[in-house]
Design goal:
The complex is a heterodimer of chains A (about 325) and B (about 700).
Chain A (H helix, E strand, L loop, with lengths): L1 H28 L4 H6 L5 H10 L6 H13 L5 E2 L4 E2 H36 L4 H15 L3 H14 L13 H5 L2 H31 L2 H8 L4 H23 L1 H15 L4 H10 L3 H29 L6
Antiparallel strand pairs in A: 1-2
Helix pairs in contact in A: 1-14, 5-6, 5-9, 6-9, 7-9, 9-11, 9-12, 10-11, 11-14, 12-13, 13-14
Chain B lengths: L1 E13 L4 E13 L3 E5 L6 H9 L6 E10 L2 E2 L5 H7 L4 E4 L13 H12 L4 H14 L5 H4 L9 H13 L5 E5 L7 H18 L2 E6 L2 H7 L2 E6 L2 E7 H6 L4 H9 L39 H5 L5 E3 L2 E3 L60 E16 L5 E17 L3 E5 L6 H8 L7 E6 L2 E2 L5 H7 L3 E4 L13 H11 L5 H14 L16 H13 L5 E5 L7 H18 L2 E6 L2 H7 L2 E6 L2 E7 H6 L4 H9 L41 H5 L5 E2 L5 E2 L22
Parallel strand pairs in B: 3-8, 3-9, 6-7, 7-8, 15-20, 15-21, 18-19, 19-20
Antiparallel strand pairs in B: 1-2, 1-4, 4-5, 9-10, 10-12, 11-12, 13-14, 13-16, 16-17, 21-22, 22-24, 23-24
Helix pairs in contact in B: 3-4, 3-6, 4-6, 6-7, 14-15, 14-16, 15-16, 16-17
The chains are: A mainly alpha (about 325), B alpha/beta (about 700).
Chain lengths: ~325, ~700
Amino acid sequence: MLTYTLRRSGQGLLVLAGLTVITFLLEHLLPGNIARSILGVHANPATIAAFDKQNDLNRSILVQYAHFVDQLLHGNLGYSYTQNRSVDSMLASEAPRDVVLVGLSLALAIAIAVPTGIVQAMRRNRLVDHVGTGIAFTLYSMPPYVPALLAVEIFSIRLHWLPSEAPQASTAIGMLEHPAGLVLPVLTLTLVTYALFSRYMRSAVIDTLAQPFMHTARCKGLPERVIVTRHVLRNSLIAVVTLTGLSIPGILTAGLITEEVFNFPGVGLEYFNAATTNDFPTMLGITVVIGVVTILGNFLADVSYAILDPRVRL
Amino acid sequence: MSLLEVRDLHTEIRTRHRVVHAVDGISFDVQEGETVGLVGESGSGKSMVANSIMRLLPPGGAVTKGQILLANTDLLTLDERAMRELRGNQVGLIFQDPMSGLNPTMTIGRQVAEPLIFHKGFGRRAALARARELLDMVSIPRASERLDDYPHQLSGGLRQRVVIAMALACSPRLLIADEPTTALDVTIQAQILELLDDLKAQFNMALLLITHDLGVVAERANRVAVVYAGHVVETAQTGELFTRIRHPYTQALFASVPRLDQERGRRLYSIPGAPPDLSVLYPGCRFAPRCSRAHQECEGSAPALQDDGGHAVACFFSLGSDKDPLSAPPATPAAQGPERQVPPQKGRPVAEGPAPRAVPVTGSTPQEPPPPAPLLQLQDISKVFTATSGTFFRRETGLVQAVAGVSLGVAKGETLGLVGESGCGKTTLGRIAATLETPSSGKVLFNDKEISTFKERKLRKIRRDIQLVFQDPFSSLDPRMRVGAIIREPLVWQHEGDRASQRERVLELLDQVGLPKKSVDRYPHEFSGGQRQRVALARALALYPRLVIADEPVSALDVSIRSQVLNLMKDLQSEYELTYLVISHDLSVVRYIADRVAVMYLGRVVEVGSGDEIYSRPGHPYTAALLTCIPQPNPPQGDQHATAPVRGELPSALKPPSGCPFRLRCPEAKDICAEKVPALGSLGGTHEVACHFPLVKAETVSRGAQVTTDA
């Protein structure tokens, strides 16, 4: 387990290095100029040159990258000139609220997808299954903003049941104190994630049900309830867990769009704003953090995989 | 009193396009404490009988007619809840594959304990304690330590013991064993069958033994019912059935099984054609199209099972009856037999096939001719694999010596049989001989050229001469290629002739392996297992190879089809002047096809010699044990069952025992066996054995070893 963790950490660092190189390059290839975006359209060339010199922006890209990595290793993700604050402090204040949004939706999605996936698989090709498949495919094929806008249109504008904007509290606890405002963003993200997971779960259970040991379980005369909880569930989750790890980036992307639609104060919204204002340090910082989260998520998925499946030892 | 009575059972499987009449009017009964054998080939409906009794049929399956009485209660009238009460409680089921039949994510202790909790109201602790006792009863060593093991930590034999313990947990009155030993090695099979017999007496149960293996029922069953195409065609007491066979199908089935005591060179009988399609209703006897005795009457109406003093048979012209057209049946059924899969030949016995080639190596006569030059020579071959653990995250955990210093030669035109149990390294050795694997040390010589050092270009040339036939005809043919393209492929890649001549060659090959010309445009899935193996043979022969390596060529096939393919292989050998290396776990198959036999155990050749030498005078205790383990379809002699001659299981190649690899399971083992690895030593003639205390005396060297005559 220890050697495994070490090796995976090594791999993770490599991935992270690659990620920073690519993001760094891409952002330098973008049209637009950091100095110009900060100093405004009326800045004269001399001011811009002075700014570039002050911030090492006139040095070669390699030096700039080395500088970025050096800062990164010291836990410094950079400084946003646009917002006039460090990316670290921005993340410290925004990230907890994202944990609320993504965490809640993920938990809800799994809580709904696992039982519906089981029911659909056990009633395969019957009405329940067809309805479930229809719902999942409809949600799955929609870009995340469509269910978000539909939810706003129906529940806020027409029915006036729920606010269309997320609570603007400054802390995670503050967000939870206004649950009404959380309903629509969490619901949107849950539906999108659910669509994915229920499909995974359904096919995993179908595979498990076809295994010979299911026949064994029936021959023992076990009640159906016991067969599902003891023999189907764990074996099906083995397949689902890996897929969960792989789907983290997708969920985070969906989260980004959800935050924009509901004006949810989180990292996603920051990223969106940074992208529209050429705030490179913020974009770069957030990309690195999302990269770390993805790598960690996959690592956790693999560890859970090994816990669920006794044949796999790390 | 009858414990189980099955009356006129009809079970159908409905799929979207057709209805398969899997069980079509089967009746039989099982008395208290009795063992009844249900024998049939795959697709005969025998497993559906078991599933019908359990009322656990596959989707679309339903019992449409009949009764299943267990202690006078009709199971077909019970509701699902009552049925559940019964499963695992009054009726236990053991099935073929212990690898996939256990839940991989649950400890074996909990799996064995489960029925006790649900049927007998045991608490968790009490159930686990009882599970430990049950694992003890099925002779799992150190049962208390094994309770927390997961199935993948156990060998196949141990897993089947766990399955048995699970089925016995609630002391059922009836145990159904569906092919309980088919997936196991012969030495383990003997142990499991013996265990089932012991437990049957201990638990006072009745046993319904479902198998394709006549030898298994001959040794273990009180009564036997032979099933063909959803019908019972013959049933009697085991002794009666095996001494006075009356149904032509039973007779043909017997004749198709290669025997250890069979005269070499006598052609194996094979039943022409293939089992019928059970979705097509047929008014006559289902066996008539393949039967050598069939008359018009047989095609018009189906014969009913007629009881005649306890021996019931469903045939208008049963053997020995007044109407038998061949009133004096041949002394041994093996004497007759159509040689190819030809359209059914009715009412006439077919002359014996061509006499086999002269066997180059015979007995131990001193003035034998010098052995022909070896075509393939394996010189001191070793192969070491690095063992890894974990499915995804591999890491090295040790070295596995798959092959340890094997030297063997195969002479031109000879058939060498390589036998051994799974994990003995025989397949690896075959792959090395085929240049698919490079040996860790040692040389492979083909036609006196050292091919083990050849590089890609030269290898491609030499591979024309060495072709392979694999075990599984279902996965060794590309499902998306037509048969014509499959057979033509070697010709294309070796630039052999133009398109027209290649097509011509394909048609010629199809004819030689006994397939119709129109097969060219068909896909592999349209063929049966036996036909696919014919395609594989045709592909192997396309380039006129000199050596054919066949790895378990008939293991996946049914008995009646197996003999067709074996006979075909013999015919092709003389036609193409082939040299065969046949790898098999089945000693009877090797006995039939091979001139010389090498027995492998844990990476080493422990005995080598001519067929007669190995089978009539085995020198190695392991060879002798293997021979006694094979259940033979002979009438049982009294109540004497053969007891399993070898205890324990094949040791791990990761940690092989010191000295002789077989010593831990050997009844003859002495101190020296643990110290020194015995080398192959001559017993005279071509017979060599690697044992410190061989069972037969060497002819030239005298030794203080005991002499055992082995039947």
